[in-house]
Design goal:
The protein has 278 residues and is α/β, with parallel strands linked by helices. The chain has three domains: 79 residues, Arc Repressor Mutant, subunit A (Orthogonal Bundle); 96 residues, 3-Layer(aba) Sandwich (D-Maltodextrin-Binding Protein, domain 2), CATH 3.40.190.10; 82 residues, Periplasmic binding protein-like II (D-Maltodextrin-Binding Protein, domain 2, 3-Layer(aba) Sandwich), CATH 3.40.190.10. The strands form four sheets. Strands 4-3-5-12-6 form a five-stranded mixed sheet, sandwiched between helices. The chain has a three-stranded antiparallel sheet with strand order 10-7-11. A two-stranded antiparallel sheet has the order 1-2. A hairpin with a 2-residue loop joins strand 1 and strand 2. Helix 1 crosses helix 4. The longest helix is centred in the N-terminal third of the chain and has 23 residues. The radius of gyration is 22 Å and the shape is elongated. The chain starts with a helix and ends in a 6-residue tail after the last helix.
Length: 278
């Protein structure tokens, strides 16, 4: 089966739109439409329903989608294995915002130095969103907070983190938690931690920036929980009260993971790469 047909199918399925898929694939809408028709004719199955806002997968399409992804990635992996490492084409990296602050820049610089021909793409989000991306084959590797919960993922590297509760230096601290986006592991941990300790929380304020959270802690708006690596990197370790939790209470390492069925050809390189103090 033509690999390009499968790529078109996956793009349309992901975008739920012929026009958006054509933009992603950098080809005319008519070409995308004709290739979908060609694939459906080859398989003698209808893969998409046409709806007012675009297209959605049929039952056959839903069942074929993971198989198409598997075929694409196995073919790409086979092609990569036949090439020298210097000729590896592309690596899509997912990362939590927290890890991006601390070590993603030197990580990408090192990859660029060692594999100058490699195209690198970075996607950031919460552990929840980045995990969804790697499970959907949207990224090749990902940095997440905590051990992976899915048995489809394997850990390439584990970086131990010091986890701390961060509070203002003032004596009258409000019982307010300052949280990151939904799906952040540290926010979920702090909520459960306070519940277990029966510590009353008046309310929770959500922010879209780690810098904003730390600055709000500094001026006395509330408390939060983050790895010390972030606090030091952003220069707040002298400005706020820090309570480092025992590893038995808060064991939340940063893990570099990949799918078990799609291990990057540079996996051995990644396992040996120094990430601890980046």
């Amino acid at each position: 089966m033509d690999l390009n047909l499968l790529r078109v199918f996956v793009s349309v399925a992901n975008k739920k739109s012929i026009s958006l898929a054509s933009n992603e694939l950098k080809c005319a809408q008519s070409n995308v439409t004709s290739r979908i028709k060609q694939l459906e004719k080859t398989m003698d199955l209808t893969l998409f329903h046409r709806v007012p806002k675009g297209v959605i997968l049929t039952e056959h399409g839903e069942r074929f989608y993971p198989k198409a992804l598997e075929i694409i990635h196995k073919m790409e992996d086979a092609l990569f294995s036949l090439k020298d490492n210097e000729k590896i084409g592309q690596l899509k990296v997912g990362s939590t915002e927290c890890n991006a602050v601390v070590r993603i820049s030197p990580f990408l610089i090192k990859l660029h130095e060692d594999f100058p021909q490699m195209q690198l793409e970075l996607f950031t989000g919460t552990t929840k969103s980045v995990t969804e991306q790697i499970l959907d084959y949207q990224v090749d590797i990902a940095f997440i907070s905590g051990e992976p919960k899915s048995d489809k993922l394997m850990v390439l590297r584990k970086i131990e983190e010091e986890i701390a509760i961060l509070e203002p230096n003032s004596s009258n601290v409000p019982n307010v938690t300052l949280t990151f986006k939904e799906g952040c592991v540290y926010d979920e941990f702090l909520k459960n931690y306070y519940e277990e300790k029966t510590i009353f929380v008046e309310k929770s304020l959500s922010f879209g920036s780690l810098e904003t959270i730390l600055s709000c802690v500094k001026v006395g708006m509330g408390k939060t929980l983050l790895p010390m690596s972030i606090v030091k990197k952003m220069g707040y370790d002298k400005d706020i009260k820090i309570t480092v939790l025992d590893k038995k209470e808060a064991n939340i390492p940063t893990c570099l993971v990949c799918r078990k069925d799609y291990i990057p050809s540079i996996s051995e390189y990644l396992k040996k790469l120094d990430l601890e103090n980046k």
